[in-house]
């Protein structure tokens, strides 16, 4: 007869490792290829939290997630250089979002400029390619453009506001399985 | 053309900073002219010509692939699209499906 589950598990978690307080981890452990289950677990948990929030709070869920994203954006971006120029600010933003979201400026073919100044505000279209929010939505089969997407909107707005010192807004123009189009407005 | 090299310099999202043109092909034999791609595309890339969809403004395509996903005939092919990472794909499910297929 095999070992009991308790004995088996206790054996698995027994090591002779000495963990000293001065040990500083120099890498993210375990390596990326072993992270699939952890990542998917997080994606699902995150997705279901937002789904439940939407069920309970209705449209108020968007405000909550947007606010959460915005706080996160402000928090992260406060350690980055402040920029007045929109293009420089976008470059800083790309550093902030690196590894989580990738984006590129976009314009329709009939426009000459990417950055447009109109009625005292400035706007630019951004195409988001890699996006952990989209990945999470697709992992649990949730529609895009909902409260989970508002976390990204808040995150970008918070970061841009922190960098430029201007008030920002990010409108979702279109969501797709491979990329999403958003309009960043600065006032 | 999408993204001509004007004042904007490359970001992480577009490391090469090169001009990008997405080529779209419609399999005219497969297309059933349902018009879903015409309705779904926010950039007006497609138009129905006769009873077949035609990419009349491919220069406006941003590569979101909504049309690709919505096409019931799987008649569309996009070349030059930046593929996003697909971290949501569960290898456990894929392995199971592969066994069945």
Verbal overview:
The complex is a heterodimer of chains A (187) and B (101). By secondary structure, chain A is of the alpha+beta class. Chain A has one domain: Trafficking protein particle complex subunit 3 (Muramoyl-pentapeptide Carboxypeptidase, domain 2). In chain A, 47% of the residues lie in helices and 19% in strands. Chain A is built from six helices and five strands. In chain A, strands 1, 2, 3, 4 and 5 form a five-stranded antiparallel sheet that branches. In chain A, a hairpin with a 4-residue loop joins strand 4 and strand 5. The longest helix of chain A is centred in the first third of the chain and has 22 residues, at 36-57. Chain A is elongated. Chain A starts with a helix and ends with a strand. The mean pLDDT of chain A is 90. With 101 residues, chain B is α+β, with helices and mostly antiparallel strands. Chain B has a single domain, classed as Alpha-Beta Plaits, CATH 3.30.70.20. Chain B contains three helices and four strands, in the order E-H-E-E-H-E-H. The A-B interface holds A 36, 39-40, 43, 87, 90-91, 94-95, 97-98, 102-109, 112-115, 127-132, 134-136, 138-139, 173-181 and B 1-3, 6-9, 11-14, 42-43, 57, 59-60, 62-66, 68-69, 81-88, 90-91.
- How many E strands of chain B? 4
Strand composition percent of chain A: 15-25%
Q: How many domains comprise the coordinates of chain A? A: 1
Q: In angstroms, what separates the terminal alpha carbons of chain B?
A: 41 Å
Number of helices in the DSSP assignment of chain B: 3
Given as residue ranges, the uncertain stretches of chain B (5+ residues, pLDDT < 50) are: 1-18
How much of the sequence of chain B is in beta strands? 15-25%
Question: How large is the radius of gyration of chain B?
Answer: 17 Å
Low confidence ranges of chain A:
none
Strand order of the largest sheet of chain B: 1-4
Radius of gyration of chain A, in angstroms, nearest whole number: 21 Å
- The CATH architecture assignment of chain B turns out to be 2-Layer Sandwich
CATH class identity of chain B: Alpha Beta
